[in-house]
Amino acid sequence: xxxxxxxxxxxxxxxxxxxxxxxxxxxxxxxxxxxxxxxxxxxxxxxxxxxxxxxxxxxxxxxxxxxxxxxxxxxxxxxxxxxxxxxxxxxxxxxxxxxxxxxxxxxxxxxxxxxxxxxxxxxxxxxxxxxxxxxxxxxxxxxxxxxxxxxxxxxxxxxxxxxxxxxxxxxxxxxxxxxxxxxxxxxxxxxxxxxxxxxxxxxxxxxxxxxxxxxxxxxxxxxxxxxxxxxxxxxxxxxxxxxxxxxxxxxxxxxxxxxxxxxxxxxxxxxxxxxxxxxxxxxxxxxxxxxxxxxxxxxxxxxxxxxxxxxxxxxxxxxxxxxxxxxxxxxxxxxxxxxxxxxxxxxxxxxxxxxxxxxxxxxxxxxxxxxxxxxxxxxxxxxxxxxxxxxxxxxxxxxxxxxxxxxxxxxxxxxxxxxxxxxx
Length: 424
Hints:
The protein has helices at residues 14-28, 55-62, 65-76, 95-108, 116-129, 132-144, 260-273, 275-299, 306-334, 342-365, 382-393, 400-411, and strands at 149-152, 168-172, 175-186, 193-199, 210-216, 224-229, 238-249, 253-254. By secondary structure, it is of the alpha+beta class. Strands 1-4-5-8 form a 4-stranded mixed sheet. A 4-stranded antiparallel sheet has the order 2-3-7-6, with no helix packed on it. The longest helix is centred in the last third of the chain and has 29 residues, at 306-334. The N and C termini lie far apart (60 Å).
């Protein structure tokens, strides 16, 4: 089977889609590609002990000739950005199809060629709000991998409240001149583009004076300074980004001047919709992680401890429930129904589970877990990393407290949480 043979009619049942993809992968995967990296070790899944591949190693592997060959075949088969509409190079796939695709690449130990934030956030926003010229100029560069995006939304004083963004954008001729600061910018190390929320009208209400601008990301040039933020794990996965008179094309404002809030809402909605892929990865990673923890217990002689055996049995049950819950959600989407409040239940479930699993892992590891490995930068071992990062899982994408409020007020119909007088 060649790349031209991948004919998948719309509405193909998941079982048939799985069979077609499995055959295509077997016929098209370059020999030796699975050997140059453990592609199952997803670097973009935080807090997993299976994240044994650094972002630098991943980027280096993507420059390998075998990956380039695989990338070209996936592009020809329209398996890059497959959730995009067909007229923009995709297949119009939704969560059920994307789940099958990820599972089959994972099964084969091969990478799904993705464009990360360009694919899941920026591209769909341009498709929805961009002009024909912007679609023509910007979408092909995302699809080809030429443009790699990071996000410029959060600020020191505007994290969750994006409408309070203070980064300024001043119009000078056919350019936007940007000055301000962004923080918690992930993927900054490999990005060459950034989508920035800035205030272009200081007289308008805070939701109406914002603009969404596509900017070349060139730290050290054009007034851009990116400063890595060291985390307690020793990693530097985020940066704070400073703009000092950074210039961007005026025709790179998506949705029109002052209409950035509308575009931001779409971008965040697309991010939530892309959670299907992240969720598939999460289930796969948690299964491998638990298997590795069982092996650690055996290596330390803890597998005969009845309390440890009970705790591992509990963890096995939780992981099985994770998979069952996600498969239920995928089935609902396939049936044309909107996922209900179980998405909040899901977020609460996996984040709280992983917090407990991290503590269990350190208990099994024993006193060695109290010491960081030798080396520069205060490194941690994989289980220490899982324990430390697991705490962030109860904060990002909606804190556990927020999720409980959503379930309590929206599902159980409990009274709203009391608000202090004068609080917003």
